[in-house]
Amino acid sequence: MGRRRTHEYVPLPAAAALVLAAAACGTAGGTGGDASGGDRLLVWIMQGTNPDETGFFEAANTAFTDETGIEVEVEFVPWQDAQNKLSTAIAGGTMPDVAELGNTFTPGFADAGVLRDLSGHGVDTDRYIPGLMEMGQLEDGVYGVPWYASIRSVVYRSDLFEEHGLEVPGDWDELRETALALSEAEEDMIALPVPGDAQYSVMPWIWGGGGEIAEQGSDGVWTSGVDSEQAREGIGFFTGLALEDGTSTTGAVNWNEIDVMEAVAEEKAAMAILGSANPKAIWEANPDLEGRIDAFTLPGPDGGYMPSFAGGSLLSVFEGTGNEEAAWRYVQHLTGEEFAMRWAEETGFFPGEADRVDVFSAEADPILEPFAVQLKEASRGVPATPAWTQVEAEKVLVGMQQSILNREATVEEATTRAAGEIERILNGG
Amino acid sequence: MRGRRALLPWVLLTPALGVIGLLLLFPLGRIVWLSFREYRLRDLVSGESDFVGLANYATLLTDPYLWRVALLNTVLFAAVAVLTTIVVGTLAALLLAALRPAARVFVVSCVMVAWAMPAVSGTYVWIWIFDVDNGVVAQALTSLGLLDPSGYNWFADRLAFYAIVTLNVVHGGFPFVAVTVLAGLLTVPRELHEAARIDGAGAWKRFWHVTFPVLRPVFAVVTVLSTIWDFKVFAQIYLMPGGDVGGSRMLNLGVWSYVRSFGHNDYGLGAAIAVLLTLLLLVITVFYLRALFREDGLR
């Protein structure tokens, strides 16, 4: 055949070009951003489990522009993508001027040197909730102003509790019995989802049993207590609800907090570990549930309360944007009296200033009362070290929880592995 | 005269080469450069980094995760997915070639919808279909009594996880093969088939001894392209439950590179994984093309 001649050999460059051309489909071109240096202030706000925020920002930004003449553009960033988006923005020089940063990843970004040290601006660190403020401080610097606190407790269906004559549980055994009674009474519902992809729902059980996620010794070395007897007892109890008592569902292994919230909103779950901003979002999604859900503080193993993770956000100013002064004014604007309180009222999060928590709780919806108790009496933070960001990014606790729920590992095996990973990361391995 | 003729193709290629150089060779060079450096979040901010020689590659090649998980997942998955894509695509092309023009247009349009579907949306549809509690598949299997009502988390099972990824990728990739092979099929001289039929050749023999040899270059191209695509699938794995957990057994090289870079903020090591993946593809592609065309040349 005559065509043979043209195909006798394949030159290497042709093969290379093929590989490159096909690989090009996955390569994003560089973007030359112009986010910085202009009159407009670019603000990144996180989005996920909180209620709709657009109305709040319209009001807050109009007030800010009226006062200062500076225009503000708010971009909403889903929580799951936040860390990656920030990293790529830093690499591409398209950072925002102000960003809401989850308290667990503020130390990491502060340590990397992207955030402006606000200590020269007279931030009164004593005014804020200590656990939240601590995450914004690194040595003598202040890299974020606490904006709001979020805390997780249990949201439950008060109508179902009433219907089946159930009481709010006061310890772990009662919680288990309540969950068992609910699964029996409501066959089509999930009594208490045990999610696999929600690390903050796992942390309380580590602390509740008496364990520590990680502690720094006097020699500076971190030791994780996730594999301690106490932590194992708590984790074993929580995962046992799914594996032995069947109060969860197989699919919950893949659920994150948003999925858990949706399960409640869709009337598929009767109890769930959720944040204080979730009831509002649930009512937005399903107005029928108004008046039919309530909350209780996470019970301790033998009564009392079990510590829950105090999350929340700080507002940070990025370094090197050319807009630092205007950005700082915007941070003050949002954390100031008027808009901090209004934000709390509209979302159900707690204000970042300790004094305002009480003022807010006194007037807030009664469903927030158990959350306020949780925040004041039984809340904990994660280890305040820049490396913690990596523990979250690697999803160490998620991996642990999922391997237990998938029955791939026992509680002992999974916790041993997780503790090893945490120690490796925190000790700079 | 000869000199001018040799120069002309290069002149014509200049614009394309310029674009490739700017959009591909520069980032590629940058990745190679990155892979020799200690590059963390802090270096990203300061823009300064240290040369560490082959340290990233040493870390990478001694990591059991590479050998037991990432490389294994990448290679096995690609092999199965490429084979399935080619077979399904060829069958679709043979069907299309046998149809009347009107019916052919209709079927091609349907097939192209799968091709046009963005990987992200497609992946979410497959996740939804395989939802552990309420997915169509779970409900169908449960009602047939093949699955325990408490369900089964296939996303945690490496084989099932990759079976879903394969379905997704084959579904997205077969239309390209089908349309390309169809174009080739229409060029196969009708007389060859008629002659073969008169000689008593069945459908399989006609395909294997008449169609396939004529279409060998077409198959070479679709195989190479599919191989490249399937080696570097990303969204179809990353978006699946468990596909983004560092240390999970589901990652392939591409996702691992991303998790290393943006999860661990270890861009140097992430770049080293990317370079490894590129080299792997380059070797496979050269090998593939040479083997296929050498056979063609000897015949």
Strand content of chain A: 5-15%
Counting DSSP E segments of at least 2 residues, the number of strands of chain B comes to 2
Contiguous helical run count of chain B: 13
CATH fold descriptor of the largest domain in chain A: D-Maltodextrin-Binding Protein, domain 2
Give an account of the 3D structure.
The complex is a heterodimer of chains A (429) and B (299). Chain A is 44% helix and 15% strand. Chain A has helices at 12-24, 54-68, 79-92, 106-112, 130-134, 158-163, 172-185, 199-208, 229-243, 257-265, 278-285, 324-335, 337-347, 354-363, 369-377, 388-393, 396-405, 411-426, and strands at 41-47, 72-78, 98-102, 137-138, 141-142, 145-157, 215-216, 222-223, 271-275, 293-296, 308-317, 350-351, 379-380. In chain A, the strands form three sheets. In chain A, strands 1, 2, 3, 6, 9, 10, 11, 12 and 13 form a nine-stranded mixed β-sheet that branches. A two-stranded antiparallel ribbon of chain A has the order 4-5. Chain A is globular, with a radius of gyration of 24 Å. In chain B, 34% of the residues are buried. The model of chain B has no long low-confidence stretch (mean pLDDT 89). With 299 residues, chain B is an all-alpha fold. In chain B, helix 12 packs antiparallel against helix 13 (267-298). The chains are: A alpha+beta (429), B mainly alpha (299). Chains A and B meet through helix 1, helix 3, helix 4, helix 16 and helix 17 of A and helix 1, helix 2, helix 10, helix 12 and helix 13 of B.
